């Protein structure tokens, strides 16, 4: 029991003791405990000298006598010792009653204080429990974040081991650059102190060595997708937009193809800024309607799937003519093997750092994805790879450095979870999420120049940034 409760118990115990004492002591003080009461109605005088008289009058149902006590006259009581004791006792009782009343008030106040403290203690206990629960949740969250960061860093370990082999070479480059910077600073102070031709030769030699080092970088592997960045909102729910990955740095033309069928109009914009503002520079009327949304612009020409066929068309923007067309043997078309969203997306044309590709499915491969590398001039199939992944289960796909990356859904919760390397003819399951902000992706293609993914997401033209991981080739690599 807490101290306030102990105090309350002591008070109540004291009050009980006082009440018991009064019930036992008061009758003896006034002389009533020596009275013998008879059952008759006669007068019984107890102490003639003191003048006290008792009259018996009735009997209750339990057999107890109900009596009337008559005190002596006032002048007699004034000389009566027991009367004085009675008065003194009454005064003490009155004083005790007042004390008990005060004690009762204090007890009530202390009791309210105890109740208030009990409520506050319960509230504090609940807060401590909540703080403890929140701490556990927060610790779990921080632990999970750290674990996710560690999972992201694990693939870097084998690559860092390869970087060690070139660490000494890079240190030498840094030292030579530092020395050349010192020399160039000195030249500014004293022209002619060094032979210009000799200095120029050192710079050329260093640049050549740096380029040789850069050649050791292999093609990148996809590690992360961030974004999206919404460039524009236009067109129908399905469509395609793109730039040319082989165009020069000054050539930033954008091509726009709305809808996945029953259309032949391609709109051109000189730049992203013109595309956003809607300032068209030119319009092309193709000789055939296209099927799907998986077209690609590569080295100045548009490659697309001719409507209701497995024929690939190469169309030149400069001449406005069809330069080549070829049937993609055994390829399904017209919603036989589309992506999960349909839209005649049977044949997906794409480009990466290596060249031009076609992704499709055939009956011979049981509807699973086939990857074919194409000759950009003749559209001839140079080489094909048959995967074990069903085309109709793929959301969208794209090529980076000869590796096909397949997404699991065109709806919410999208991520890249399957990849196939044409270099090693092997596949693996990955887990690279990306934000499907507008809930329906009908076009997703990689641009090697911009290092970005172009996407058409439910009438929104968006860009995703990609993080690629480059590995330094060793002398053992072929």
UniProtKB/TrEMBL annotation:
Swiss-Prot/TrEMBL keywords: Coiled coil, Disulfide bond, Glycoprotein, Secreted, Signal, Synapse
Pfam family, one: Noelin-1
Olfactomedin-like domain mapped to chain residues: 218-470
Any coiled-coil regions, as ranges: 79-134, 170-216
GO CC term (a single one): synapse
Keyword set includes Glycoprotein: yes
Disulfide bonds: 219-401
Protein location: Secreted; Synapse
One BP term from GO: signal transduction
Keyword Ribosomal protein set for record: no
Protein name per UniProt: NOE3 protein
Lineage: Eukaryota, Metazoa, Chordata, Craniata, Vertebrata
Gene giving rise to this polypeptide: Olfm3
